[in-house]
Amino acid sequence: MVDARPKSFNERVIDDFRAHEGQITSGPFAGRSLLLLTTKGAKTGDERTSPLAYSRDGGRLVVIASKGGAPASPAWYHNLRTHPDVTVELGPEKFRARATVAGDAERRRLYDQHAAKMPAFAEYEKRTTRKIPVVVLQRI
Question: Which of the four, 47, 82, 119, 135, has the lowest number of CB atoms within 10 Å?
């Protein structure tokens, strides 16, 4: 049976990412540094994949659970809090990683470093009263 529903924005980004080995070729993320993060659902255990902007801190990858400054964190963040072993797709490479939430001092440094490269993240902080989590992905 063919699924007749239109693809979501994220599904289209994921398809573009995989078709072009990590290079987004169209839409608002064209040319940006994106990775695909696959988490296991906190309640369902089902795998979920999210395209995320990332930065680097040495050999580690950094992603921000901003959800555009929404009042609540994104589902992928809640998932990795329950199941910290995740899968990362970076360019043509796919590997397992362990996700950890940065502590306060490191969080500030990593968030500022990330926002310096992608200024929209500085705006996301202004849109919410929550402390936006910073997640570090370390290859395992």
Answer: 119
Q: What are φ and ψ of residue 7, in 5° steps?
A: -70, 145
For residue range 82-104, what is the model confidence (pLDDT) as tens digits?
A: 999 999 999 999 999 999 999 99
Indicate if the alpha-carbon torsion angle 50, 35, 42, 58 is positive or negative.
Answer: negative
Q: Could you give the CA distance from residue 34 to residue 10 in angstroms, rounded to a whole number?
A: 12
CB-count exposure of residue 35 (10 Å: 0-12, 13-18, 19+): buried
pLDDT the model gives residue 97: 98
